[in-house]
Amino acid sequence: MPLALADWQHELAAGRVDFALGPQAQFVVLPDTEGWRWLATARFPNGHTPRATEQVGSAIWVRQEALWRDERDLRGKRVAAVDEQAFGGFMLAERLLLQHGLHAGKDYLPVFTGYPIEQTVEALHRGEVDAAIAPLCLMEEWRARQGLPAESFRPLSVQTTVNGCVSATPVFPHWVLAALPSVPEEQATRMMGLLFGHTPAEGMPGWSPPVSFVAAEQVLAELGRHPLHPSWQNQGRKWLQENKLLAGALGLAVLISLINYAWMSWLAYRRRKKLR
């Protein structure tokens, strides 16, 4: 059953799923994958018509007439993105912008347009934002459907090109198949044999042994979003959310202490002035 990103962790935690097929990075951010078996990674043939859901990468697009020429020009600008938790729809580009000294919410304003993912480039087309973070192949695919000329939009930078689609970031495998603890070992092994022994139809993906998660984990760690390596900012934010009453009481106590200190200082100043 297809799941929205917001329902992903809930359904898996509820134990209603035996096999999970999803983006590599979404598996990494799960808090508990003990007992999971990573079975295979989908591989799409080179040279076929690309689609935005096949691999994960990001490009930052602007309108052709825009004055900004690289990522640093986005300071103070509105930037459309899919979702805060979307790997190709935000996090990869967030890391790229961070490498250029731009922090989300401080140096530029992310505008999360949600799903379907086409809403990011549509917002750019309508002029509602200054730039759009688009997953790999999304702009090329959407532009072709709209019948727009290729020169209508341009990427701020290009690191690599995959099947005619540009990416400003490293490209990661999208579809990884996992067997959850509820699946017997014999069944998981049989599934792997079927996948690796199957010859895909023309234009359809084949399967290879699972790709290492290390590169995706490094991205999440740099952003402070790895579940095993949370940043002190995220830890502090989580503590505040879980202890709102205590945090409010502590804040009030600090405020009263400051007011009392200011009052006592003023009284001491008046006494010294009288003694003179």
Write the layout of secondary structure elements.
Elements: H1 5-13, E1 19-23, H2 24-28, E2 37-43, E3 55-56, E4 58-63, E5 78-81, H3 87-99, E6 109-112, H4 119-125, E7 131-135, H5 138-146, E8 153-155, E9 160-162, E10 165-167, E11 172-173, E12 175-179, H6 185-196, E13 206-208, H7 214-222, H8 232-242, H9 244-275
Parallel strand pairs: 5-6, 5-7
Antiparallel strand pairs: 1-12, 2-12, 2-13, 3-11, 4-7, 4-8, 9-10
Written description of the protein model:
The chain has 276 residues and is of the alpha+beta class. It has 3 domains: 7-52 and 173-223, no CATH class; 58-167, D-Maltodextrin-Binding Protein, domain 2; 230-275. The chain is built from 9 helices and 13 strands. A 5-stranded mixed β-sheet has the order 6-5-7-4-8.
Indicate the multimeric state: single chain
Number of strands: 13
Structural class: alpha+beta
Low-confidence stretches: none
Any idea what the radius of gyration is?
A: 25 Å
Reported for the largest beta sheet, the result is: 5 strands, mixed
* Helix and strand sequence: HEHEEEEHEHEHEEEEEHEHHH
What is the total domain count? 3
Q: What is the CATH level 1 assignment of the largest domain?
A: Alpha Beta
Rough outline: flat
CATH topology description of the largest domain: D-Maltodextrin-Binding Protein, domain 2
* Strand portion: 15-25%
Span of the ends, CA to CA: 83 Å
